[in-house]
Structures are given as structure tokens and as C-alpha cells.
Amino acid sequence: MTFETLRAALADVVAIPVTPFAEDGRVDSAAHRALLHRLLDGGVRTLTPNGNTGEFYALTPDERRAVTEATVAEAADRAAILVGVGHDLPTAVEAARHARDTGAHMVMVHQPVHPYVSESGWVDYHRAIADAVPELGVVPYVRNPLLSGERLAELGAACPNVVGVKYAVPDAARFAGFARDAGLDRFVWVAGLAEPYAPSYFSAGATGFTSGLVNVAPALSLEMLAALRAGDYGTAMKVWERIRRFEELRAANGNADNVTVVKEALASLGLCRRDIRPPSRELPEDARAEVAAIAGGWPI
């Protein structure tokens, strides 16, 4: 894929597939393939294996590689594959090269997990990854409200393969300023806080959004995207109202149940087990019925 093709793939619903686990705790490869095909059959055309909804930080290095390989094998002829990479710099570079060698099209660089992150150090970290895989599109995942747009502009000037940004600071006004300081037209702006923030971020310049909910109801995510592309914010907000409670449950207590709620919904539909790894935890019995009722009322 050319960089322009990759830019188009980011201006879409960027799905973050879950990683289902079997009863013995290992990745359930059969369920994983089935869920990927369900997304593709539902119209999804951009997939992010090893994203946060895929429990990136709870997977072993071997599991992350296996998830990448399985996703490329099952979907690369039907979708753009944006592989999540991160951790220490050598690990991130190794994962990016593995994604390239496997046949993925882009890498999403998870927010650096470090207690001391300088803006210039942020640029150095991302530049090293981008330089290691010049053939791939690179998408920084921005969650740090202290990072300035000027630093992203610096990264973009040095690395032409940095094609988009997943922006996940929960502040639409800050996003609008950040995007303009970095270069509104230089990057594809992906609303990284999914459907709840997509309408406000689209109004400020985003053209795509990430989604974990899409695992459960692809039609709803695609309906919102179509409305936002058409500038029909009234219809987009009707979708927003339908998903509001589900997303509130995911976001409660500092996003403690972000993935848990998605897996619970999938389990209620018989699509995978609800199993989730620490430090996340399964929903208590009294909360499961509400999630099942919500998911049961959506188009599947």
C-alpha cells in the first residue's frame, strides 16, 4: 500500500479487535479468527492487532507476535493492518520489524510507559521506530496532554512515513489546537477515544476514529462514520445516544472495565469467552445482565 492508501485507511473506523482466551488461559486462535472475519464481513477495513482493547500489555511477546501473524494471515487481503507496538525502544523496534516482515501495513506506537517523558525524548523514541521501518506507515498514539503540536510537526518533518495520529487526550479544544500546531493536513487525525468523542473531534478536524465497540456491533460504528463523513451530526448523535450507556460502563472508574465490558457483550452473544487477564477483571454477576441487554438490542 502507498502512504496515500494508508492515509485513506486511517480515515475510517479503526477497529481494535479483542484477544479472546481459551479455558486454559491461552489465546483462543479459532475464536480470534472468527471474530476477525465477523469484523471484515461487517464492513470493517482497518484492524489494529495488539491495541489496548486487545490487551496489549497483558500479552507475552510471543503472543503479540502470534496475534500479529494471525491477523495478517486472515485479513491482510481485505483490510489495512495497523499493528500496535511499544514498551522499551528495542522491543518496539523489533515488533515493528516483525510487523513489516509479516506483511502488515502500518504500526501504531503505544504511548511510552515511563515515569519521565520529555517532549524531545518522545520525538527521539518515535523517530527511531519510524526510521527502522521506512516502508511502513507509522501512527503515534498520543495520550499525553503535555505534548505540544510543534513536537509532532518536528517528527513529521523528519519521518515522512508518520502518516497519522491517534489522538486520545479527552479535550476537544486541546485537540483542535494540537492538530493545527502540528499540521492539520500533514497527518490523518484519528479520534483515539472512540465513538463517544468522535463527533466533537470530527468537528475539529478528525476524519477517523478508533473503536472497541465495533467488535460487538460493527453496523453502529459504520453508521456513525457515514453520518460524520456527511456532516450529519444529528444522525451521529442518535448513534451516540444508543451506545452511551455501554461506553459509560467501559469508562467508569478510570476505564477499569474498558475491555471487560466488550468481552462480556461478546460472551453474551456466544462469540467468545468473557475471560480477561489481570490487572483487568471480569464483571460481577449483577452487571452482566445490563451489558447483555444492551448488546442484545443492537444490530449484529
From TrEMBL:
Keyword Lyase listed: yes
Keywords assigned by UniProt, alphabetized: Lyase
Keyword Lyase: yes
Matches recorded under InterPro entries: Aldolase_TIM, DapA-like
Listed EC numbers: 4.1.3.3, 4.2.1.41, 4.3.3.7
Gene3D superfamilies assigned: Aldolase class I
One Pfam family linked to the record: DHDPS
Top-level taxon: Bacteria
Matching SMART domains: DHDPS
GO molecular function: 4-hydroxy-tetrahydrodipicolinate synthase activity; 5-dehydro-4-deoxyglucarate dehydratase activity; N-acetylneuraminate lyase activity
PANTHER family: 5-DEHYDRO-4-DEOXYGLUCARATE DEHYDRATASE 2-RELATED (PTHR12128:SF19), DIHYDRODIPICOLINATE SYNTHASE (PTHR12128)
Family of the protein in this entry: Belongs to the DapA family.
Protein name: Dihydrodipicolinate synthase family protein
